[in-house]
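Reading a protein record of the kind used here takes only a little practice. Think of the row as the fold of the chain written in a discrete alphabet. With that in mind, consider the following protein and its fold in token form:
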Amino acid sequence: MAKRLAVFVYGLLSYMAFFGTFVYAVGFIGNLYVPKSMDSMARMSFWPALVIDALLLLLFAVHRIGFLLRRHCPIFLSLLHLLHQRHNPSSSRTSISVCHAG
């Protein structure tokens, strides 16, 4: 019974988080009851904001690529082996040993 209650509470909290985010997005776009809307003034100039956004995107991309390589390492290494088999066989063996060591 406690497990069912915990699952219900978790679902309720998840629904409330989604609903709050959705209502905030409507307010952001429609300039309604939010502290910073889409039409409010920018706090910094374009170029520093662009650099910060690019760095955050790069950070996410590096993290995501690392996650995918760890998760799908056997698939990636088999493709790498097929591609580099005739050109440089030592690079494939090195990649396999690095993947299996981690």
